[in-house]
Amino acid sequence: GQQVMQIPQYQHVQEGEDFTTYCNSSTTLSNIQWYKQRPGGHPVFLIQLVKSGEVKKQKRLTFQFGEAKKNSSLHITATQTTDVGTYFCAGTSYNNNDMRFGAGTRLTVKP
Amino acid sequence: DAEITQSPRHKITETGRQVTLACHQTWNHNNMFWYRQDLGHGLRLIHYSYGVQDTNKGEVSDGYSVSRSNTEDLPLTLESAASSQTSVYFCASSEYAGTDGEAFFGQGTRLTVV
User: Fold this and answer.
1) What pLDDT digit, counting tens, does each position of A46-103 carry?
2) Is the dihedral of CA B102, B97, A89, B48 positive or negative?
3) What are the φ and ψ backbone dihedral angles of A82, each rounded to 5 degrees?
4) Using an 8 Å Cβ cutoff, are A101 and A23 in contact?
5) Which residues of chain B neighbour A43 with C-beta distances below 8 Å?
6) Quick one: closest CA in A to B89, which residue?
7) Beta carbons of A60 and A76 less than 8 angstroms apart
């Protein structure tokens, strides 16, 4: 069945350093979404990517969708303490009619 | 303001008991989802519904059931609670067809089965 793998599981950075999390699917995706979950909170939608090779930016966050629509990445430039949380990707396969989440990357930022 | 609410927020139950977790949304969304969150596994889909009277199994549906009798509610029932079902449960809803577009999550229910 469809699997969505996400790495790394944890990332600890110094404030001001960059951060990247990667998502890889075993099947071609129709779309991929990214969510952020603060400690003790619930997932909050960040963005959706649909097109092959798509790149979207939200201030310091850059999201990419691979050409083959099987992988994606989230890059944060110059991390801040407010970026702390777990970042999840969630992909929908052309074969399934549901959305599968990666295991998430927990980001901690040292001031 | 429209919202999605889960109840209870915390529950402790005994092995073998039937438990129902409530999810109510006021967005009038057709799509509703139940996930469980466990360390190292992210969010795993239990059941989902794309409209009234529609229910579908997700990747970890064994031991769970849902029913959709109206647009606003998708209660999740654990038929006979097991310790392996100790988890944080999230309900979500979305507006557009299938999995297109933003999903709005509830605050979560922390369930402990003893």
Assistant:
1) 999 999 999 999 999 999 999 999 999 999 999 999 999 999 999 988 877 678 899 9
2) positive
3) -75, -10
4) no
5) 43, 90, 92, 103, 105
6) A42
7) yes
